[in-house]
Design goal:
seven-stranded mixed β-sheet; alpha/beta; 10 helices
């Protein structure tokens, strides 16, 4: 069942009070079955998720819910079948009652690269923009966050998140909402930390995205931005005319120096690069849980330093800044 009773009860007396009036309708619009023809089937799968009491949950160094001994083999097979009905699973991995849900992305590797460079997340109100199925939201909770709100307009990812949350049991203060960052109230200035990981290059207007991220942060809050970059100096930007690594919605890939300049221009304080890493075919690849083409097929088969279109192969950088 997809419901947000706990969150909606929290909003009116919280720093997010100005969002409490518009959010219920935004959720209804984001989960409108007339707009998303596959949504009824995904919600039906969620309703069929077997009820298993979890012996333990671990969000600190992985996302692990329960153990093999929590259910019979037949129940585990039923659980796997329901989870498979929501393929593709892109962010993870998850361990769910002994099932290793090996997702397309090793999102735990990204988390391990990011977390050492951040202000402690304990007791913070956190927004994760473009969170997918919410893998990193669980890891943020594992760091002691007071409350985590992920947003992603894809209803498949929202249903995947609710499958995991239902298996976890309890009223964990973590939610994934079917909305985009443009649905937040303007100049909200509420979150202690805002994450935007793997989103920036999908935005047609990079400056507008940086403005939206800044307006979501309280004074003194921290931005964590991870994006594709190119090698180069100040002012260098790749704007692919066609696809990039087989993606048709990639707009701006700046150099690190250019990204830092943009962050300063938009009023962020002390922007810095904390990690630069080439994406490997071990970190992003096809699996049983994501059966379609992935990074190995998106690269030039004769030169893995290039994408299939001849652009530089993916390099990802993490930027941190304050407001």
């Amino acid at each position: 069942m997809i419901e947000y009773k706990q969150l909606l009860a929290y909003l009116p007396e919280s720093p997010l009070a100005s969002w409490s009036h518009s959010l219920p309708q935004q959720i209804a619009d984001g989960l409108c079955e007339k707009r998303y023809g596959d949504l009824p089937a995904w919600k039906s799968a969620l309703a069929q998720l077997p009820k298993i009491k979890s012996s333990h949950n671990n969000f600190a160094d992985k996302v692990e819910i329960g153990a093999v001994g929590d259910c019979e083999a037949s129940t585990r097979a039923e659980l796997q079948s329901v989870l498979e009905s929501l393929i593709p699973w892109r962010k993870g991995p998850y361990w769910l009652h002994g099932i290793h849900l090996d997702t397309e992305w090793r999102s735990d590797w990204k988390w391990d690269r990011v977390i050492p460079h951040l202000a402690p997340l304990k007791n913070r109100l956190i927004l994760d923009v473009g969170c997918g199925n919410g893998y990193h939201c669980w890891r943020m909770l594992g760091e002691g966050a007071q409350r985590v709100i992920g947003i992603d307009p894809s209803p498949r990812f929202v249903v995947q998140f609710h499958m995991v949350k239902q298996l976890a049991g309890g009223d964990y203060p973590v939610d994934v909402l079917p909305v985009g960052i443009e649905d937040l109230p303007p100049k909200l200035q509420a979150f202690d930390t805002v994450f935007s990981m793997g989103v920036f290059y999908h935005r047609k207007s990079p400056m507008d995205h940086l403005r939206e991220l800044k307006e979501a942060l309280r004074p003194g809050g921290q931005l964590v931005l991870e994006t594709l970059v190119i090698e180069g100096g100040l002012g260098d930007v790749l704007v692919p005319e066609g696809r990039y690594a087989m993606m048709n919605n990639v707009w701006f890939l700046p150099s690190c120096d250019t990204m830092l300049s943009w962050l300063r221009k938009m009023g962020f304080s002390n922007p810095r690069v904390v990690d630069v890493c080439a994406t490997s075919t071990e970190e992003q690849r096809s699996t049983h849980w994501m059966k379609f083409h992935s990074l190995p097929e998106f690269l030039d088969p004769n030169n893995p330093a290039l994408t299939a279109e001849g652009h530089p192969a993916p390099i990802r950088a993490v930027f941190v800044a304050e407001v």
